[in-house]
Amino acid sequence: MTRSQEFELSHHISRRAANRQIRPFMKLYPMPADMVPHPKPLSLGGGLPNHGFFPIDSLDIKLVSQPVFNLQGNQSQKTAATEKFSINRFDEAGVGALDLRSALQYEFPGDGHMELRAFTRNLISRVHKPAFENWDCILTNGSGNGLDKIADLLVNEGDVILVEEFTFPLTLQNIVERGGIPFPVKLDLSSSETSNGLDLGYLTDLLQNWEAQQPSLRRPKAIYTIPTGQNPTGLAQSLEFRREVYDLCTKHDLIIIEDDPYGYLTLPSYERDQTHRREASPRIDVAEVDNYLQAGIIPSYLTLDTAGRVVRCDSFSKLYSPGLRLGFIVAHAEFITKLSKFSEISTRGYSGLSQAVLLNSIKHWGTRFSGTLSQTDCDVYGWLSWVMKVRNVYIHRRDVMLDALYGSEAFSRSLIQPLEPKAGMFVSVKVNFTEANGPRGHHESVAKLMVEFVRYGILVVSGSDLCVDDEISKDNANFFRLTLASSNCDEEIVESINRFTHSISQYFK
Amino acid sequence: MTRSQEFELSHHISRRAANRQIRPFMKLYPMPADMVPHPKPLSLGGGLPNHGFFPIDSLDIKLVSQPVFNLQGNQSQKTAATEKFSINRFDEAGVGALDLRSALQYEFPGDGHMELRAFTRNLISRVHKPAFENWDCILTNGSGNGLDKIADLLVNEGDVILVEEFTFPLTLQNIVERGGIPFPVKLDLSSSETSNGLDLGYLTDLLQNWEAQQPSLRRPKAIYTIPTGQNPTGLAQSLEFRREVYDLCTKHDLIIIEDDPYGYLTLPSYERDQTHRREASPRIDVAEVDNYLQAGIIPSYLTLDTAGRVVRCDSFSKLYSPGLRLGFIVAHAEFITKLSKFSEISTRGYSGLSQAVLLNSIKHWGTRFSGTLSQTDCDVYGWLSWVMKVRNVYIHRRDVMLDALYGSEAFSRSLIQPLEPKAGMFVSVKVNFTEANGPRGHHESVAKLMVEFVRYGILVVSGSDLCVDDEISKDNANFFRLTLASSNCDEEIVESINRFTHSISQYFK
Fold first, then answer.
1. What Pfam families does the database record attribute to this sequence (chains A, B) (predicted)?
2. What is the pLDDT of residues A336-354, one digit of tens each?
3. Which one of A283, A352, B313, B431 is CB 3.0 to 4.6 Å from A103, fit for a cystine?
4. Contact residues, chain B, for A48 at CB < 8 Å
């Protein structure tokens, strides 16, 4: 579609977002036609403090060259290989980085500094280029905030939003906050080999027979999915599968809310034989990034989207750090305009320090490719070279965890079945409960097993915790979500899995 | 009041905020009474990345010792007197500062890191101690975000919120967003000597005769005021005046929303004779801070509040930098609980980098007082010693601007009358329009004069821009708001005022 065409999906914008008017700060004063404005006006207008009031003159930042674990106290200063760069009051190099003078200032209308927004556009163009033209990116205060803004954009009172039956619970809250109704769609948890997460047959049937099955509810207006490294299951949808879902959503006019905090953390197939595992390289070159771009990442729904039907929620939390409070949304420009208005009256901007530290880190990582690549690609490749280092740790930790699970007595006794994750930071493990299910299905057994986990000292989250509707999920809530993210070292992962599997062995004694 | 008493103002909580339920992330699993939990549990539960994934190992921060202006490029690195400190991955000194390991991590439920919240409580205890017991502080993403959250807390559809007739327009937007009705209260702009801003007689009459005068509207439930350095007028309410307003609000059961971004930037009386002006000291000692605390700051409405009627919105934007996106709200703990729930589903936290840089700056400034003061007071005095340096610049700039205004031809011809500001960053200047007012009152003349400002190259904001209701304010919208904040140097302020006053002189030619 071209920019001149009308956006055919604008009927999905909530009444709240469609009707929101932002009062301009100043009135519009008509100027006489013959008036010649002063060529160099001065301003006593806005309330922006001069940067001379800002106490910070410069930041020197030391980055580790690799993620490093199990550090304590001043050990980190000494043992980790590090590299340094500075952020000054003025960007003298003029490389389009964010200097302190700008980063510490107000930013209007509050959608993120243009330098970082430009990077997000370049990244998406390179990695997940939308198949429609009139798209844009806007920053958020992290993905959780982004999902709240997307709910504001789309959800009217009484609107039905389809969600995966096990999912990130705060999104449900954002939907309910606007009077929306999250409606669960079954997941296929039969096997991590064949499953794409969403049960496509179930979804197709649900949409085909909605009026008959759900006479009291409106037809769904959107589906919320975590397509890569689904939380909690760790499953991922193949590109072919996404095409089928996209076509189904087109047929039934559903918006696709793609929540993708883990999409860069794809996990190649698990090799049980350790000698077959590839060694991660400490330095990452252009060819490796190219290979990752071509074969390592599952393309976003955006890449299939010819209509502006996909609203993608992206995050820097899992790849740089949650404390930045930075993420971004990719969507049709008309959606972005509405999201921007909501930001202007709610969050009113994001930390300029976070933005400057993130963007200057990216530019620092990019310098390694300068001469070889364009400035734009330097930034993207620099960023991805760090992302790949993070991903390598997740791949390694996944191996450590699955090794321990498959080596356990519980596995050899067929008490557990890991769902090998395709991406992200979670390994889900199904437990083969043998007791007859009561009316509460697996929830009953899960609650009993949770007692054993507390006894043996291992905290986990259950599928039962994260299901949208206890009744609908009662027969496949027999799994536990184990994170790869938080342990200090491999030994801690192994010890944690030992406690987890031992608890289960004891439970079935 | 004591904590055990019921909060008598909880009926002011909006239905939205009162009914909001946050679904817990995990279910509550009942544990058998005889179960002994493992003494050292490990966690595979949450999704928090280990800090080993965070690329930043340390930040070295260079602060200027004083605000410094008119710097360019690498000049700032060379000419400004600076001091340095570091933020490391681990807070080894253990002084309660925020280290990178915590700052870069998720923070739950998203109300700000406890270390910075503790500082805000200490600051308020020292400077504006509430007269009720059960109060607390919660961070915001800057005051604009704080005001949005306060609107969520209080405003139901159809609620009337009183506001100053000229005010910060985004707050109106936050009220309207919830279906509330901002209703203007007249300001007394007769003279900066005698005015406290709000026209108390008007307000008293309005509340006394509300049903008769406004039969179609509900009784007001709150008043929104910027009591110190009112935007745009620069006026301030004396403590005695606040007591009268507070008593009136008690009588009519109004919540007081105190927006106080400029409260620390009080401006002592303007001395026209330059030889009578005091010299600002470059180093600020304990006695000076004590003097500022006792005589330099107008106590907040909180200090009069025995009931939890005041909700105070505070900001670090004007004192440290807007790009931090950090402010805080002080209110009754029951209000804070509701604000926290809203934060949990909307902003979901604030930049840990901003919080760490701010808190560690405060602790750095505080070290100068260590040995003399308690750790808690070191932080407060350290912070205030920086604030006083910022304030000294505003006092100086106010002098420069008023000198230029009073020295102008426009003033000598009685065309203008500055309202000498009591606090904040704005000087408002009334223009004595002589033409007969048409049905649009002063708005017509303001629009014509704005043309001259564009012609002569000076951007200003008009009272007309910032009035809530054109009709109500048409006879006192004859003023312009000039900022002290944004100019690069004194010479720029003088040149700006020359253009401003010259435009007016020309207009009246």
1. Aminotran_1_2
2. 999 999 999 999 999 999 9
3. A352
4. 322, 483, 485-486
